[in-house]
């Protein structure tokens, strides 16, 4: 039916019904918008946390594969206020998009206002003696080492346990022999004095005393040569008087000598146990140089030696490390000498020659073991000389890898001066450092590694005020938001219910892993 031109009308009742439906629709829409706004506050808080930790120290990552935020932002002065200011900047940027987009078509349905933001808790790289540093280093090595390499490290750890057992046995035998030799030597001196007194009283004329004394052997005693070497600097002997680094660092400002800040947040320990310890030490060997590496531009040249020994200067660290390696090699070599029947027989024969005229079996036995100890010591000096020159020495020796004869023990000084051999098979110097690391304190190694990281980065122009204890590795934050009403005006006019602002609090956080 054509009703063109006719007037239309709507009843008051229908108008009221339409208004009520519109009010209901606006109320439902507002409710959905509020729920979306709540979710948006969580998203913005998460993006804010991510953005704050996204400003990690680039040099630390580039050089050591470690994520951390410099809490001082290059000033050297730590403060959570600076971090919170950056958090607010990122939160506001995402909460108020109209400030950043100049367009008439920009519509923000959430109408969020940031009321407050706080850094509730934070974790530092140096917390718990460097535990966050340890966790990141192990995680990185897990991603970059294959299963075969990890299995090889575990097998190597088993060797270290055996070495520690052998070394304990060696030190025990060495102390026992020193005590027995000292007692036997006193007994020998007393016996020699008695013989001399008896010969003097029985001498019929001047000059006959020596004839009445037992004939002493005209054989060089290699123990005297070893005694001279023990009085010399071990470092100069095994390095061949090579030029050594004179670098040192101020230890009063490094993490291992005390930190003034501690985090308030616990970091989950995802990596622990034997495998984690081995991977961390492999990380140290990968990222820190040692004596046999080319000279670098770090705070120290012998950095693995510093991690092992903890001295201020390169030479002191090298000396301490060399002494430990010497003791290790002495133990291994001595046990080989004792178990080798031919070498034990040679030492016994020479001991009889040197002391048999006194007729004191205890002195002869103690001298035999002293010769074996000296023989092992001499071989160990040659081993270290080879290792520091870039050669290799097997952990357990046999007849083909043993180099020093008992006859040459008395000329050991000349052999050391002329020895320049760098070949050989077995373990290199770095492999022996791995053994020392696995025998050392893990907590000390973590903090000493942080010492080196801090001092090395300070030599870089962009991080000259870097402090390891200022490095944040995790944060927990709390943000408060106000959600203003948008679609509640019609419902408010109809029902008389006021649409108040809604307050929302979001707690969150983030940790480098």
Distinctive features:
single chain, 513 residues, alpha+beta, 4-stranded antiparallel beta sheet, 17 helices, 4 strands, 7% strand
Write the layout of secondary structure elements.
Elements: H1 12-53, H2 58-64, E1 69-70, H3 80-95, E2 112-124, H4 127-144, H5 147-202, H6 209-212, H7 222-231, H8 234-239, H9 274-287, H10 303-309, H11 314-339, H12 341-355, H13 361-388, H14 412-418, H15 429-439, H16 442-458, E3 471-483, H17 489-495, E4 502-511
Antiparallel strand pairs: 1-3, 2-3, 3-4
Helix pairs in contact: 1-3, 1-17, 4-9, 4-16, 5-9, 5-11, 5-13, 9-15, 10-11, 10-16, 11-13, 12-13
Given the structure, what is the number of helices? 17
Give the N-to-C terminal Cα separation. 76 Å
Task: Look at the helices and sheets and give the structural class.
Answer: alpha+beta
> What fraction strand?
5-15%
Helical coverage, percent range: 55-70%
Q: Can you give the mean pLDDT? A: 82
- Can you tell me the overall shape? rod-shaped
Radius of gyration: 39 Å
Q: What is the H/E order? A: HHEHEHHHHHHHHHHHHHEHE
Brief synopsis:
The protein has 513 residues and is of the alpha+beta class. It has helices at 12-53, 58-64, 80-95, 127-144, 147-202, 209-212, 222-231, 234-239, 274-287, 303-309, 314-339, 341-355, 361-388, 412-418, 429-439, 442-458, 489-495, and strands spanning 69-70, 112-124, 471-483, 502-511.
């Amino acid at each position: 039916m054509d009703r063109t031109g006719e007037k239309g009308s709507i009843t008051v009742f229908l108008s009221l019904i339409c208004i009520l439906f519109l009010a209901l629709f606006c109320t439902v829409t507002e409710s959905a918008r509020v729920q979306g706004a709540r979710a948006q506050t969580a998203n913005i808080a998460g993006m804010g946390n991510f953005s704050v930790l996204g400003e990690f120290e680039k040099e630390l990552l580039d050089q050591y594969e470690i994520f951390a935020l410099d809490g001082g932002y290059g000033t050297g002065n730590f403060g959570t206020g600076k971090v919170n200011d950056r958090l607010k900047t990122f939160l506001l940027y995402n909460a108020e998009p109209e400030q950043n987009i100049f367009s008439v078509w920009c519509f923000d349905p959430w109408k969020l206002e940031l009321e407050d933001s706080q850094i509730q808790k934070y974790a530092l790289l140096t917390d718990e003696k460097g535990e966050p540093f340890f966790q990141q280093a192990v995680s990185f090595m897990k991603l970059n080492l294959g299963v075969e390499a990890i299995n090889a490290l575990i097998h190597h750890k088993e060797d270290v346990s055996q070495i520690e057992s052998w070394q304990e046995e060696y030190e025990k035998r060495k102390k026992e022999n020193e005590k027995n030799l000292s007692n036997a030597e006193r007994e020998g001196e007393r016996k020699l004095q008695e013989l001399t007194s008896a010969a003097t009283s029985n001498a019929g004329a001047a000059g006959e005393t020596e004839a009445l004394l037992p004939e002493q052997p005209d054989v060089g005693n290699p123990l005297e040569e070893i005694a001279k070497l023990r009085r010399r600097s071990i470092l100069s002997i095994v390095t061949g008087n090579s030029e050594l680094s004179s670098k040192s660092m101020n230890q009063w400002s490094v993490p291992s000598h005390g930190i003034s800040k501690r985090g308030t947040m616990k970091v989950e320990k995802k990596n622990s146990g034997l495998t984690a310890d081995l991977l961390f030490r492999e990380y140290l060997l990968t990222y820190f140089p040692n004596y046999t590496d080319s000279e670098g531009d770090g705070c120290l040249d012998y950095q693995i030696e510093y991690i092992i020994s903890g001295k201020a200067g390169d030479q002191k660290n090298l000396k301490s490390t060399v002494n430990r390696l010497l003791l290790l090699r002495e133990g291994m070599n001595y046990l080989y000498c004792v178990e080798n029947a031919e070498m034990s027989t040679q030492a016994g024969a020479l001991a009889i020659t040197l002391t048999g005229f006194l007729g004191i079996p205890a002195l002869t036995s103690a001298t035999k073991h002293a010769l074996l100890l000296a023989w092992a010591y001499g071989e160990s000096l040659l081993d270290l000389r080879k290792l520091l020159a870039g050669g290799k020495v097997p952990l357990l020796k046999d007849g083909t890898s043993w180099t020093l004869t008992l006859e040459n023990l008395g000329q050991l000084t000349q052999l050391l001066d002329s020895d320049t051999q760098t070949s050989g098979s077995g373990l290199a110097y770095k492999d022996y450092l791995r053994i020392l690391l696995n025998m050392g304190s893990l907590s000390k190694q973590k903090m000493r590694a942080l010492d080196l990281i801090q001092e090395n980065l300070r030599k870089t122009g962009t991080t000259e005020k870097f402090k390891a204890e200022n490095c944040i590795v995790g944060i927990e934050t709390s943000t408060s938001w106000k959600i203003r009403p948008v679609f509640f005006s019609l419902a408010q006019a109809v029902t008389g219910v006021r649409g108040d602002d809604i307050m929302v609090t979001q707690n969150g956080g983030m940790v480098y892993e």
